Automatic annotation (TrEMBL):
Protein name (database record): Aspartokinase
Positions of the Aspartokinase ACT domain: 316-355, 384-442
EC number(s) recorded for this UniProt protein: 2.7.2.4
Catalytic activity: L-aspartate + ATP = 4-phospho-L-aspartate + ADP
GO MF annotations in UniProt: aspartate kinase activity
Annotated source species: Zobellella iuensis
Pathway in which this enzyme or protein is active: Amino-acid biosynthesis; L-threonine biosynthesis; L-threonine from L-aspartate: step 1/5; Amino-acid biosynthesis; L-lysine biosynthesis via DAP pathway; (S)-tetrahydrodipicolinate from L-aspartate: step 1/4; Amino-acid biosynthesis; L-methionine biosynthesis via de novo pathway; L-homoserine from L-aspartate: step 1/3
PROSITE patterns: ASPARTOKINASE
Alphabetically ordered keywords of this record: Amino-acid biosynthesis, ATP-binding, Kinase, Nucleotide-binding, Transferase
Length: 445
């Protein structure tokens, strides 16, 4: 077996025994899928995060643990032979209780990750047993044996070289012979302590494992049948996109489309591994293929919306015909690890947006910036990103877009840096309408 497929199943796809059964059927239909990467069952990670916070009193911890137990018990009860696993799951739940008691005394980042990781450890155990009872042989694999990371708990960065070597040695031989079920989201530092890759990180895990094993494809099974032209909760005419390029999909993930964790495509791009996004509830509905390049390259493909943006405008008269001002400003932002999304400049000012920057933009940062310039901070803005192809090259693109928005106050525009996007900021309360209007004008069915 040389080229295998990696399939990732998200939290809602493994929410209960029925949902897990649908994932099992997907795997059974495609024998070349040799690695299944799972999230924790829906709701579980949130409960574990609350337990790990150390902020809850014993009563409230008991209630969180009870909710956690009910989710696992519901799946166990649907198994034909729950006794195969009952003991094991009970042990994990007991372990979680002990760890959360410790967290209540002294919460640490390492303890947090150890607790939060238990969700994926349980969902994968249950899923392997469910597969076995359907007659599908599968083995459980502890991903921490291969997913080596640094020790930045709750946001760990994978060590790609170590991962590739370990996956080749420990994982590939297993995948050659059978279906392997493993955990998304979690990893281990060099000293063996459990780490996690950040919320929603299972997509990223699947892509990393796909890269390490040079997979033929990575499938992301979730609760929506693919990537949509825009959020269907916002625009009912939104529809699934059959195929999209890596560049376009990366822009979408970065600019707020919730379907994929933004880092997911990096490993796929490095190895040119096609990524499929589909719904485990309706696999027959198809989904979206994300590839290096696609035969269709429409001018307008999709619209993404990211709310809660902070716009920072820095003005300095001394910037006039001077140099070094921007370097100074970005130096300060870099020192405080604040990442900037959009930028526009004029002779004496620069405007930039920060995603969820409110909490990063502390008094201290503002004071430091104020030493060099006048500072204006605006909230309540939303970033609309129009995604497509050759947008900076085709005549009339800007006019088509802005004609559709003739009644809207556009606070800032970024156009031309990438042929794949045109971004602008509008007031939060008109953002939904703006996306609906643009969708109707630019992405008609
Ligand atoms: N279970 C983790 C979370 O809820 C990882 C994931 O679902 O991708 O964030
Ligand atoms: Mg999830």
């Amino acid at each position: 077996m040389s080229q295998l497929t990696v399939a990732k199943f998200g939290g809602t796809s493994v929410a209960d025994a029925d949902a897990m059964g649908r994932c099992a059927a997907i795997l059974e239909q495609n024998p070349s899928t040799r690695l299944a990467v799972l999230s924790a069952s829906s709701g579980v990670t949130n409960l574990l995060v609350a337990l790990a916070s150390g902020e809850h009193q014993p009563d409230s911890r008991a209630s969180l643990l009870q909710q956690l137990t009910e989710i696992q018990q519901g799946i166990l009860d649907s198994l034909e032979r729950p006794e195969m696993l009952t003991r094991h799951i009970e042990e994990i739940l007991h372990h979680i209780k002990e760890l959360s008691d410790s967290a209540a005394i002294s919460p640490t980042k390492a303890l947090h990750d150890e607790i939060v990781a238990q969700g994926e450890l349980m969902s994968t155990r249950l899923f392997v047993e469910l597969l076995r009872q359907r007659g599908t042989q599968a083995i459980w694999f502890d991903v921490r044996r291969v997913m080596r990371t640094d020790d930045r708990f709750s946001r760990a960065t994978p060590d790609l070289t170590a991962l590739a070597a370990a996956a080749e040695e420990e994982l590939r031989p297993l995948c050659d012979h059978q279906l392997v079920v493993t955990q998304g989201f979690i990893g281990a530092a060099n000293d063996g302590r459990t780490t996690t890759l950040g919320r929603g990180g299972s997509d990223f895990s699947a892509a990393l494992l796909g890269e390490a094993l040079a997979a033929a494809a990575v499938e992301i099974w979730t609760d929506v049948p693919g990537i949509y032209t825009t959020d269907p909760r916002l625009v009912s005419e939104a529809r699934a996109i059959p195929e999209i390029s890596f560049s376009e999909a990366s822009e979408m993930a970065t600019f707020g489309a919730k379907v994929l964790h933004p880092a997911t495509l990096q490993p796929a791009v490095r190895r040119q591994i096609p990524v499929f996004v589909g719904s485990s509830k309706a696999p027959e509905a198809g989904g979206t293929w994300i590839r290096n390049s696609t035969p269709s390259q429409p001018l307008f493909r999709a619209l993404a919306l990211r709310r809660n943006q902070v716009l920072l405008t820095l003005t300095s008269q001394s910037m006039f015909q001077a140099h070094g001002f921007l370097a100074e400003v970005f130096g300060i932002l870099a020192k405080h690890k604040i990442s900037v999304d959009l930028i526009t400049t004029s002779e004496i000012s620069v405007s930039l947006t920060l995603d969820a920057g409110a909490e990063l933009l502390t008094e201290e940062v503002q004071a430091e910036l104020s030493k060099h310039c006048h500072l204006k901070v605006e909230h309540g803005l939303a970033l609309v990103a129009l995604i497509g192809n050759r947008m900076s090259e085709v005549n009339g693109t800007g006019s088509r877009v802005f004609q559709a928005l003739s009644d809207v106050n556009i606070r800032m525009i970024c156009y031309g840096a990438s042929p794949h996007n045109l971004c602008f900021l509008v007031e939060e309360d008109v953002a939904g309408q703006v996306v609906a209007d643009l969708h109707r004008e630019l992405l008609p069915a």
